[in-house]
Design a protein that fits this description.
The complex is a heterodimer of chains A (176) and B (164).
Chain A lengths: L1 H9 L5 H30 L2 E12 L1 H6 L5 E4 L5 E8 L3 E2 L2 E4 L5 E4 L8 H5 L3 E13 L4 E3 L3 E3 L4 E5 L4 E11 L2
Antiparallel strand pairs in A: 1-7, 1-11, 2-3, 2-10, 3-7, 4-7, 5-6, 7-8, 8-9, 10-11
Chain B lengths: L1 H10 L3 H30 L4 E13 L11 E4 L5 E18 L6 E20 L7 E2 L2 E2 L5 E5 L4 E11 L1
Antiparallel strand pairs in B: 1-4, 1-8, 2-3, 2-7, 3-4, 5-6, 7-8
Classes of the chains: A alpha+beta (176), B alpha+beta (164).
Chain lengths: 176, 164
């Protein structure tokens, strides 16, 4: 009888493990709700349209000509969608300043009227083009697809269906 | 008799249960520390020194439209920590130092295809360790600064620093 009373006294009115499990389930529930809310707000944020102007430099005429209106661009590293080209300038001869004999910079380029066929064949070009992108726009950054941070002067490695190149961001114009 | 034994067994301290409870408590304590005390442990509670420093990003394509504004956060690309706020920004012509092959003299000329971006940043720094530190990032003249800002992305170097 005495043993029975002691046992009853020692026994807690609740099972600690059961309570912990209930607490964990409640925490998971809150976590799931928070995540769902975060996801929906992120989804809204990812619909911000922007026009990003890129410049590709020191490329062949063939590479420059691959980029035209309608070309879909992806990030080279993970094939993430960047956007679709909505306008593209005509390629211009690539200008580079190099050090001359007197130590000063001198313009080094193909003049475009060179009769040397090889020189024209090997000429390098620059091309500016605009890409329509969708992403998130926050106080700290514009991110394509909500994940790829971009800003003026960022260099992106890009691919299209039939080309691969690097391009520098010249500007980002948020549209909505 | 059998009932008594069962009840005794039930009331017995279970080491696995205790470990489980300890783990849960440790996780909760970790979460509390992470959300409420981490910043002060990093020195947020210590005395700060107001500093101003300049960052020069050189050889930026002159066609790049710099969209930095006063008050913008300056974030380190790797740690993603804020290392100050923009006080002022200006662009300068990009200067190139060459060598005259005949005289051996150094000659400076301007590269019209490039620009230099100079950003003046203000920050509250810790100086406890003997050097200025902002957001865990050492700031000093000559230090490379990896800029991740809304209006600019690139690498610059700290060229001047003073206390405000």
């Amino acid at each position: 009888m005495n043993n029975q009373n002691n046992a009853k006294k020692k026994k807690l009115p609740f099972n600690v493990i059961d309570i912990l499990i209930v607490l964990i389930i409640i925490a998971l529930g809150f976590g799931a709700i928070a995540r769902t809310k975060l996801r929906s707000s992120t989804a809204d944020a990812q619909n911000v349209k922007a026009v990003i102007t890129f410049k590709m430099s020191d490329v062949s005429k063939e590479s420059a000509d691959k980029i035209k209106v309608g070309t879909v661009l992806y990030q080279n590293t993970d094939s993430r969608l960047i956007g679709t080209v909505i306008s593209a300038d005509e390629p211009v001869l690539y200008e580079e300043y190099i050090e001359g004999e007197d130590g000063k910079l001198v313009l080094s380029t193909y003049n475009g009227e060179d009769e040397n066929a090889d020189a024209i064949q090997n000429a390098r070009y620059s091309k500016t083009f605009a890409v329509e992108c969708y992403g998130s726009d926050t106080a700290g950054a514009y991110s394509i697809g909500g994940v790829r941070y971009v800003a003026p002067n960022a260099l992106l490695d890009l691919i299209s269906l039939d080309s691969e190149f690097s391009a520098t961001i010249l500007s980002i114009e948020i549209k909505n | 008799m059998v009932t008594n034994m069962k009840e005794n067994k039930k009331a017995k301290f279970n080491i696995i249960d205790a470990l489980f409870i300890l783990i849960v408590l440790a996780v909760i304590a970790g979460a509390v520390y992470f959300f409420f005390f981490r910043q002060s442990a990093n020195g947020a509670g210590s005395e700060k020194t107001a500093i101003v420093y300049t960052v020069e990003a050189r050889e930026v394509d002159s066609d790049v439209k710099i969209a930095i504004n006063a008050g913008d956060a300056v974030v380190d690309s790797f740690s993603l920590k804020t290392i100050g706020y923009v006080k002022e920004v200006k662009t300068e012509e990009s200067r190139y130092t060459g060598t005259d092959k005949t005289t051996g003299q150094k000659v400076i000329s301007v590269d019209p295809t490039m620009q230099t971006v100079v950003i003046t940043v203000e920050a509250d720094a810790d100086a406890e360790n003997g050097y200025y530190e902002v957001g865990g990032y050492r700031i000093g003249v000559g230090e490379q600064i990896n800029l991740r800002m809304k209006g600019f992305n690139g690498i610059g170097y700290c060229t001047a620093l003073w206390e405000e």
